[in-house]
Write a structure and sequence with these properties.
GO terms for molecular function: RNA binding. It comes from Fundicoccus ignavus. The longest helix is centred in the middle third of the chain and has 14 residues. The protein has one domain: 2-Layer Sandwich (Translation Initiation Factor IF3), CATH 3.30.110. It is an alpha+beta fold. Helix 2 links the parallel strand 1 and strand 2. The two termini are 14 Å apart. It has a 4-stranded mixed sheet with strand order 1-2-4-3, sandwiched between helices. 42% of the residues lie in helices and 19% in strands.
């Protein structure tokens, strides 16, 4: 996936502020099922947040980069134990955020 401009990244960070984390990674760590669930969710939402619980052995940066690479997404930001991922949806009916992002290019 291509890099985003500063304006696009800023917009996505601002947009993600109101989102709640929809996944939590615990002591099982990064599993194929977790990656698959994130992939399905990001297809419909384009922008998602997830948390890593304290009992997880993963670091937020490593987990976010691994997931982003596996599902061809971008890590928008990591703060504390929370990461924000973005990927434009391939279905037109879900392309709300990506339409705004493409106009900011």
């Amino acid at each position: 996936m291509e890099k985003l401009s500063k304006a696009q990244s800023k917009y996505l960070r601002k947009e993600s502020h109101n989102h709640k984390p929809i996944f939590q990674m615990g002591k099982l760590g990064l599993t194929e099922v977790f990656i698959q669930q994130v992939d399905e969710a990001i297809e419909k939402r384009e922008l998602i947040k997830f948390n890593i619980l304290q009992n997880s052995s993963e670091t937020i940066q490593d987990a976010a980069e691994t997931i982003a690479e596996a599902i061809d997404a971008l890590v928008i930001q990591t703060v504390g134990n929370t990461a924000v991922l973005y990927r434009p949806s391939s279905r037109e009916k879900y392309q709300k955020i990506s339409q705004v992002v493409s106009k900011l290019a």
